[in-house]
Amino acid sequence: MSKVLIIEDEVAIADLEKDYLELSGFEVEIENDGTVGLNRALEEDFDMYILDLMLPGTDGFEICKKIREKKNTPVLMVSAKKDDIDKIRGLGLGADDYITKPFSPSELVARVKAHLARYERLIGSNAAENDIIEIRGLKIDKTARRVWVNGEEKQFTTKEFDLLTFLAQNPNHVFTKEELFSKIWDMESVGDIATVTVHIKKIREKIELSTSSPQYIETIWGVGYRFKV
Ligand code: CA
Q: What is the Cα–Cα distance from 201 to 217, expressed in whole angstroms?
């Protein structure tokens, strides 16, 4: 099921968008604050973003720019003024589409569907060139940032994916938690090595048959972790 994140501070509009998208079979999350929404957009994996322009915290311009620095996921921008659309285009933020308020919910749904279909084709057409790691039943597509365990796709947050991929690319190498933290999290991140432990736990829940006797990520007591091959 495709997941859509709506960042919109007008609750009635956000709820309307959500209702219509859910009726069309999408999984929808809403954030009303720009900054909270931006953090979720960067941390979690969504298939599409719907951004309002004027938001408390971080505005839609900035959110779009930040998403584009990291992801190719389609972005639909929603604006109350036609003039803003020229401004968005002029800024070259990389939004895929624009819609002005008021809009018909069915138009919104049609546009979301069209962008998701286009994006799926884009990912599919690049599949042959994708960089894939396969270790026993675990398959990591580094290009599409997707993971399968024994043929079943699992959802990972950005950092979980980065951490798993880093370990899998360096098999049998023991890394300390400090090393992993500095490799995966940038300097301004709030957190410490406990963050690493939490992420390892979450990754194991998704990839291991038994988290008490992991077959992929092994704990080296007093040192850190290594990916077993
Ligand atoms: Ca607004």
A: 10
- Given CA atoms 157, 193, 174, 201 in this order, what sign does their dihedral have? negative
Alpha carbon of 79 to ligand 1 centroid (Å): 8
In the reported structure, the alpha carbon of residue 204 is separated from the centroid of ligand 1 by a whole-number distance in angstroms of 40
User: What is the CATH superfamily name and number for domain 3-126?
Assistant: Response regulator (3.40.50.2300)
Question: Which residue bears the tokens 């859910």?
Answer: 22
Ligand 1 centroid–CA 75 distance in Å is 16
In the numeric block, which tokens belong to residue 131? 């960089």
Predicted structure pTM score: 0.56
**pLDDT band per the 50, 70, 90 thresholds, residue 66:** very high
In the chain, where the domains are located: 3-126, 132-227
Cα 90 to ligand 1 centre (Å):
20
Query: What are 11-34's pLDDT values in tens digits?
Result: 999 999 999 999 999 999 999 999
132-227: CATH class: mainly alpha
